[in-house]
Amino acid sequence: MIKQKGMLYDVTLCVGCGSCYNACKEQNKLPATNKDYLKDHLSDKTFTVIEQYGELYSRKNCMHCKEPACVSVCPVGAFTKTELGPVIYDVNKCIGCRYCMQACPHKVPRYEWTSLNPRVRKCILCYDRLKKGLPTACSEACPTGATLFGDLDDLVIEAKKRLKENPSTYYQSIYGLKDAGGSSILVISPVPFEQLGFTSHLPGEPLPKLTANAMEKIPGVVSVGALCLGGLYWLTKRKNEIAKEERLQKKESRSHEK
Amino acid sequence: MKNSILKFTFWKVVAVIIIVAGLYSAFIRFTQGLGASTNLSDAFPWGLWIGFDMLCGVGLAAGGFAICAVTHIFNVEKFKPLARPAILTAFLGYILAVCGLMFDLGRPWAIWHAIIMWNTHSVMFEVAWCVMLYSTVLFLEFFPVVLERFKLPKILKIIKRVSIPIMMLGILLSTLHQSSLGSLYLIMPEKMHPLWYSPLLPVFFYLSAISTGFAMVIFEAFLSARAYNHGLKLNLLSACSFISIIFIIINFTLKIVYLSMSGKLQYLLILSPVTYLFYLEILIGTIVPAFFLSSRKFREDKKYLYFSSVFIISGFLLNRINVSITSLAAMSKASYFPSITEISVTMMLVVIGMWAFKLIIQNFPVFSEELELEKPVSVIESISKPLTLSE
Amino acid sequence: MVAIFVLITFLLFIAIDWLVLKSQKKKHPAFENGTSIADIAVFTKEIFRAPLEIFLSKGHTWAQKNEYGLIKIGIDEFILKALGKIAITKTAETGHVVKKGDVIFEASVGNKTLNFRSPVQGTVKFINPLILNKKINDPYGDDWGVLMAAENFSEIKNSLFTGNDIRKFLKEEFSRLKDFLHKHTLRPELAGATMFDGGNVVEGAVSSITAQGIDEFEKDFLTV
After folding, report:
1. What is the dihedral of CA A86, A90, A96, A98, to 10 degrees?
2. pLDDT (0 to 100) of residue C177
3. Domain limits of chain C?
């Protein structure tokens, strides 16, 4: 069985050196966008950023959810959650509706707004490297081990271990373990995550479930609806006929009386 | 009215200006891309074209299926004169919504992918299929008018034979996608303002589509009465308004019950522009029309009937834009206001719709009832029964 | 903000349209007075629907033979659509002998009386007890007028329209009515604009014509 890969990002270890940022640009052949990488933001040309919050640094990129909203909402199935973990995108299917961007709880997908043949762009967890058994470019470049690549199961154990061993250092929660149903990227930090620009208070269950709750009622609505419509049609038609017959009968009896 | 195309009237000039502006905007959109032509951004990927053209356009076209249900499923014959104009409006409404979508999609040439590349988990996939099928159904529903015009009774007979299943299919498809337009937003609970986010969004969307569908039938009746001096069938219109207000009240009650059950009533007390918009939506779309239409006297008065329909439609527009834009902007802190390009394309689509409507009713028997194809009805047989004369 | 913008645009267009109408000294249909076009249903194709077994005279009275050989006489639907819902105020009395073309029913429109003429010749045997002063709803059914013992019916009926000819005749009458209304109506928008638009005549449109017009109507449409 293929083991799901993932990354553990430990805010306490990050020094904001920008190695991951540069490695990502190089790996994905992206043009330079900002002289100061700390002031850059996610865009169609930047798949990962480092944000500075006081003395802390916080790295943002696609979380690679276990049950991604983007995969679920795409009408043509342009997004896929691969067995290895990465959520990848196929431009040849995409129609450009941007529902993925609208639905993503982490506000990750970016659009090539200036292009006439636009694509949705985001981190794909170096899927090509993963297939060859290589780690992601950013984790390989990280000098401090703040970004740790590995099997997702191992990373969860490691994260829990760190929280337990240093309860005073860490805020006692793993971002990405349960948020929006869990993801392949895990984050641990000394402060609550909303202070580092992460979307907090996400539901614990996967977001596609919210849609599924409504969608699963469709077969019922259709069959009950069809029955009701057919029944009502028959009933009202019959009613009209009976009313007509009654009118005739009335006429008849009236003429008999005379 | 048929004098000459060259005769200038105020609205003709306005329409030409809007269309020219719209065409220029279309040129910009398709030569320079979405970024240059719209105010959409990564933080705000859906704007006016989705919020208005799609959500409002499809909702306002709900009159087609609502009237069809009344005439062909509930067999209320007297509503039949309203059916054809409503079906035509719905058909044009859907065509235009799809046109709007062509502007909004980043890769419009790939739109056919939805036919062969399935993702059955996607609400948008379901909406796409329903809209596609329903547009076909609407065309079939309107087809008899075309056949009558070109005097093709044979095909007409075939179509009439399958008309009831087609109508039923149309109603089911409408039920699905009108509600699904609400389901589109179910997946973003944390991105939407709590006053608008609700697991019941599909139900709210469905109910408000029905009430607005009937309001649109009234509004359009006045519009065509104003333009073509067609008679208004006031008794039918006030019946429409009554159905409309019933659905509005159900929708409103459900909304209030939901807000109190989920403990969201507190948000009503936070005084901010967003809350005011919510109040405005309720005031315009529910309270004012309910006040007028609950009284029979007002309901049967042209003036109030007309204003109520304008209020219901306004409330509906507010609601859809609030769900699709206000509620998202409130939570993301990103701001969005449509660009001139987005506005002019939208206005162009509306103008084209009205123009197409005019052209079609001038050339097709839209405002006459269905031609009786069957042999003349025999009503006489009833009285040729034995009669005892008084003499 | 966008919501307000969309709302204001919508209302602005309605307001401008109102001003445009005002500058043309026209009224929006919602603000027209009392008995306007808005209150009257549109004349539709259903007038062409007539039962198979009737014989229709040029004067819009119909005759139908029942199984006892008596002839039932009534008014056709065309009249109801042209005049609006009317009621018969008087019929020829029982026992009277009526010739073809004699007055058989009287109806009042406004303060004018309209005379309907008999399609056949014979003796009035029976008057529909429910017909007098009641608005006619079901012209070929419940709301017939009188029963007659006709003379030479098999001969006379050849001069009356049957089956498809009724339909043809009524269609011609419909276009004659359009012309008639155009000539006589006080409110051209009731007839003129609608018709030039290729549209329909408004139900009851004749009621809006001048008193003299009613006489003309009788002459043009009710002579047998």
Report:
1. -10
2. 77
3. 1-31, 33-224
